[in-house]
Design brief:
The complex is a heterodimer of chains A (354) and B (336). Chain A has a domain of 230 residues: Beta Barrel (Lipocalin), CATH 2.40.128.20. In chain A, 35% of the residues are buried. Chain A contains six helices and nine strands, in the order αααβααββββββββα. Chain A is 24% helix and 18% strand. Chain A has a nine-stranded antiparallel sheet with strand order 4-3-2-1-9-8-7-6-5, with helices on one face. In chain B, α2 crosses α3 and α2 runs antiparallel to α4. Classes of the chains: A alpha+beta (354), B alpha+beta (336).
Chain lengths: 354, 336
């Protein structure tokens, strides 16, 4: 399934690469992916780009990158069946994004509130991201004509198997009313243990940056949030024994031509997808030009979904360095969330006592 | 050999012998005097007593040649002995080992490394001590260890020594390692967990098993730290066989060990990683902090390669293990 769409994906990615953040229309953008795929097959030499090699002869993926995007993971409702925006629609999206940011950055505009809290007074808003340079449009965006990261006609995560649905419903039922009892009831991200932007490389809300360093026999991918590093051996070793589970699984890599293929198993049942007990993630990274890595991934777990599902996004080169994100060291949020819950409970108890 | 030794060699060895005598290195001096042959008889006496071997009896021609050869080689051995540094616990000896190269021609530091000492318990030499947790008995008592500090003592400013004592007395409450906070440099190196070096031309990434700590050493033109951080900002370059890393801008919140050794935000660390054999590195770190210490001081220790097949780092994401400690008091009280 992955190989069949690879050629068209590469052709598409090359087309995307020519229309990144500098919004110049690329010729032939109005073509459907099928047409582009045909073009790629008939003229592979003109489309193929040979990446530089590391000193030990592997395709060079190194550098500081970002997968910051406006493209959601799942396709918005109402766009079912529409896998790609037209070139005109993409231009419109980009214009909307610029305008949204301009409004956000203007002082005193109630609608500049991006805290997610309805009707909040801008003076009270502590998380207007643009004030901290954390609004996604304040960083380089990797544009894509895709309507969702998940590929295919539906563009959504498949529905759960009945068993999985039941299992997760039970977990949810047990958790109800206990969301703030203790640290273990809060999301892994809020606890600074693991985040969903590491494997697969789903964009994070801000600072969606990563750095790749390659040494002989290993590829290291450091995601800025939460300074998590996956060191991927490419020596063909076996996976860890089944009883060793890790938040980010166990990545084993190998090269297929210019593509780094990462095969990951041995995940816990909490990360990255709650309830998945036999998760298997396959990722493919192909550098398609100097500033672009095409990133494709497939997620499967027969105990969760009847069929695997796949996504695709563009990773773009950025200037600058990865900053340290000392999540746990500065995690006032977790303490304050719990403290706030205790105060709320005490207030409620006092009221009912009166 | 004989002719060149006889004139120049004799003069030289006697001069060296005199110098060594002045320094009090008697055995070395004696060996040189014996080899020199033309030194004053008195100085040679004790040498002859030390080296009374029947091999030197007899005046046969071959015996004379052998005696000269032995004198020559003994002189070299004596010179090496006299000139070698005092047998200190430091491993900072001049090594002639040349490491295999990476594809881009640099000493290859790639691999998984770990220390085999108790530096994380206490950088200075220490005897064993009871555990702070009685129920863990002998499992978590302080093991003994030789120090890794050159000169054995960390040179605190008199005004700072009291703070160190206070830290040590309350270490389980104050040590950031207990909370799984990032360790900073150089502590990250000698925590009791492995770390992996992934070395490329422009960057050397070091991933530490503890807390998923990581840093990327910039091997290009040095850059300035944009801000303070727990793991600091690292710029590196090669000096022959040694990777030299300059680390600045660390936050003041980290400690050097579990014994309360601390620093300020003025900390400046220079590390040196030098291959000493196929599976070991020499690690040295010079620590400078004029707000806390009288002068810069230095630690050194070997790093051992994890040689088992398929050696790898595993996850030690310890924020989870510190939660009860940090947030337990904020947990909802269950009342029936």
């Amino acid at each position: 399934m992955m190989h069949r769409s690879l050629a068209s994906s590469i052709a598409f990615a090359v087309a995307i690469a020519t229309s990144l953040i500098v919004q110049t229309p690329a010729a032939g953008q109005a073509q459907s992916p099928a047409t582009k795929a045909a073009a790629a097959k008939t003229a592979p030499e003109s489309k193929a780009w040979a990446p530089q090699l590391t000193p030990d002869g592997k395709p060079d993926l190194q550098g500081v990158w970002s997968n910051n995007t406006v493209t959601p993971l799942e396709r918005p409702k109402g766009l079912a069946g529409k896998e790609f925006y037209t070139e005109a629609e993409l231009k419109d999206l980009q214009k909307q994004e610029r305008e949204r940011l301009m409004v956000t950055e203007t002082e005193g505009q109630p609608s500049a509130n991006h805290s997610g809290i309805e009707g909040a007074d801008p003076d009270d808003v502590h998380y207007d991201f643009s004030q901290f340079g954390l609004d996604r449009a304040q960083a380089k965006l990797a544009w894509s004509r895709r309507t969702s990261i998940i590929v295919g006609p539906e563009g959504t995560i498949p529905s759960l198997n009945p068993d999985a649905r039941k299992r997760l419903a039970e977990i949810r039922a047990k958790a109800k009313g206990h969301e703030f009892d203790g640290p273990e009831n809060l999301p892994l991200g809020a606890r600074c243990i693991a985040r969903v932007n590491v494997v697969p490389l789903i964009p994070s809300a801000y600072n969606s940056n990563l750095q790749i360093v390659q040494g002989a026999g290993y590829v290291a991918i450091e995601t800025e949030m939460i300074h998590d590093v996956r060191i991927i051996p490419t020596d063909g070793r076996a996976h860890l024994p089944a009883n060793i589970r890790q938040w980010y699984g166990d990545p084993i890599g190998h090269w297929e031509g210019n593509t780094l293929v990462i095969d990951s198993t041995n995940f816990t049942d909490l990360s990255p997808f709650r309830g998945a007990q036999n998760l298997h993630v396959i990722e493919r990274l192909t550098r398609v030009d100097r500033d672009t890595i095409l990133y494709q991934f497939t997620v499967e777990d027969p105990g969760m979904w009847a069929k695997p599902w796949s996504g695709e996004l563009v990773i773009t080169k950025i200037d600058g360095q990865i900053y340290e994100y000392a999540c746990h060291e500065g995690n006032y949020g977790l303490a304050d969330t719990l403290r706030g819950a205790r105060v709320t409970e005490a207030d409620a108890a006092n009221k009912s006592a009166k | 050999m004989n002719s060149s030794w006889s004139h120049y060699g004799k003069t030289m060895t006697c001069n060296v012998a005199k110098a060594l005598r002045l320094l009090g290195i008697v055995a070395g001096a004696a060996a040189f005097e014996y080899s020199g042959g033309a030194c004053t008889p008195g100085t040679c006496r004790e040498t002859r007593n030390l080296l009374r071997i029947s091999l030197f009896q007899g005046a046969s021609r071959s015996g004379y040649q052998m005696r000269n050869w032995l004198r020559g080689s003994m002189a070299w051995m004596a010179m090496l002995f006299a000139l070698s540094p005092a047998a200190a616990p430091s491993v900072a000896q001049v090594s002639s080992y040349r490491a295999p190269r990476t594809a881009d021609g640099k000493p290859d530091l790639n691999g998984i490394w770990q220390v085999l000492n108790t530096a994380d318990w206490d950088l200075e030499g220490h005897a064993a001590e009871a555990s702070p947790v009685a129920s863990l008995g002998a499992v978590f008592a302080t093991p003994p260890g030789l120090g890794v500090v050159e000169g054995d003592e960390i040179p605190y400013l008199p005004t700072m020594a009291a703070k160190k004592k206070e830290n040590k007395a309350n270490w389980t409450k104050l040590d950031p390692e207990v909370k799984c906070y990032l360790p900073g440099v150089p502590r990250a190196t000698y925590l009791p967990y492995p770390f992996q070096i992934v070395q490329s031309q422009n960057s050397v990434l070091i991933s530490y098993e503890y807390a998923g700590a990581v840093r990327v050493i910039n091997m290009g033109a040095p850059t300035k730290a944009p801000a303070e951080s727990w793991m600091g900002w690292s710029n590196g370059h090669w000096e022959g066989e040694t990777l030299v890393v300059d680390v600045t801008s660390q936050v003041e919140d980290t400690w050097f060990d579990r014994s309360g050794n601390f620093h300020s935000d003025a900390l400046h660390v220079v590390e040196r990683y030098t291959p000493r054999s196929a599976d070991t590195l020499n690690y040295e770190a010079t620590i400078e902090d004029p707000k806390v210490f009288l002068r810069p001081w230095k630690i050194s220790m070997p790093l051992y390669r994890r040689v088992e097949k398929n050696a790898r780092l595993l996850e030690y994401k310890c924020p989870e293990f510190a939660e009860e400690l940090l947030y337990g008091p904020l947990r909802k009280r269950t009342t029936n």
